[in-house]
Amino acid sequence: MKFGKINKIIAIAMCVPMILAGCAKSDAADKSEAAQPKQTTEEATSVKEEQFTIGIAELVQHPALDASRQGFIDELANQGVNAVLIDQNAQGEISNAQMIAEKFVKDDVDLIFTIATITSQAAKQAIEGTDIPLVFTAVTDPVFSQLVTAMDVTDNNITGVVDAAPIKENLELFKELKKDIKTIGIIYNIGESNSEVQVNQTKEIAKSLGLTIETVGISTVNDIPQAVNTVSKNAEGLYIITDNMVASSISLVAKLAQENKLLTVSADGTHVDEGIMVSKGISFYGIGKQSAVIAKKILVDKVPVSEIPVQTAPEFEKKVNVKTMEALGFTKDNSAFEGAEFVN
């Protein structure tokens, strides 16, 4: 009997430290929890809402549009925007552009970023009746393309950055390269309103410089060789506007133009990397970055789209392709190349 009592006492004595230790751990855990700031429901919701879904619709893959896309992505990260990107390419097809835009709307994305006129027009139609904002880039004239009613009137939830190049300065480059030049050719996609705007603008400006513009329209990239050949019969130079069909085969255009001894000037600096001789134009990477800043204002800063007018590129860049320059008999000290970046 005594031994039984003693055993019970010993068992109880052994349990006491364990119970005390358990209490101490529980106490420490409670204090640790108390030391941590508790996240309110509102704060948790706010953090969750800071991740946005952005649909990117690029018309076709080529260096200029790719540069805009990359500029947008890089600057979103730089601006600290936490975004999930749905990246789509229409492969140059209007029907694809429409399907992509409609899918973005169905997925209820927070914002659509469009690269080029056709994808922008498709997205405009798709977002009607929704509150999804649209930011575009690589559009030459958003008013003519009926994206906005005026550059400073963006009350339909659409704004962006245009890719308009300094046409007069580019035409003057031809005159610096060849003082007695008279005729300059342009090949362009007859189905792209962006190109139609540039052709009309170039013709008007050319008159004031005593130049004649000869245009050849194309419907597919397969028309390019014949178009360049036609231009070369009457023109001494080829002006490359920001036409997406032409840009998608710019290496071929540059090669054919050089074979036909045509002076080549482009509105797009990325074309120089592909063999066009000289360009004074916008940075497509730069206007992509500008578009990302606009997207951040809309999504993060909650600035109404109606308060963000359509923007233009802040500056232009001049580039010269050295191999093409030398093949056409020019040297770096030509006045037309003053201040240019020379690339091989």
Describe the structure.
There is one protein chain. The chain is built from 13 helices and twelve strands. The chain is an alpha/beta fold and 344 residues long. The chain folds into two domains: 50-163 and 284-307, Rossmann fold (3-Layer(aba) Sandwich); 167-282 and 317-343, Rossmann fold. It is elongated. The N and C termini lie far apart (104 Å).
Outline the fold blueprint.
Blueprint: H1 2-35, H2 41-49, E1 51-58, H3 63-78, E2 82-89, H4 94-106, E3 111-115, H5 117-127, E4 134-139, E5 158-162, H6 167-177, E6 183-189, H7 193-208, E7 212-218, H8 224-234, E8 237-240, H9 244-247, H10 250-259, E9 263-268, H11 270-273, E10 278-282, H12 284-299, E11 317-321, H13 322-327, E12 341-343
Parallel strand pairs: 1-2, 1-3, 3-4, 4-5, 6-7, 6-8, 8-9, 9-10, 11-12
Antiparallel strand pairs: 10-11
Helix pairs in contact: 3-12, 4-5, 8-10
Keywords: Signal
Organism: Sedimentibacter saalensis
Signal peptide: 1-28
Helix content: 40-55%
Structural class: alpha/beta
Count of distinct structural domains: 2
Topology, number of strands:
12
User: Distance between the terminal alpha carbons, to the nearest Å?
Assistant: 104 Å
Major beta sheet, specifics? 7 strands, mixed
CATH architecture level-2 label of the largest domain: 3-Layer(aba) Sandwich
Strand content: 15-25%
The CATH class assignment of the largest domain is Alpha Beta
Order of helices and strands: HHEHEHEHEEHEHEHEHHEHEHEHE
Coarse morphology: elongated
Number of helices: 13
How confident is the prediction overall: mean pLDDT?
A: 88
CATH level-4 homologous superfamily of the largest domain: Response regulator
CATH topology of the largest domain: Rossmann fold
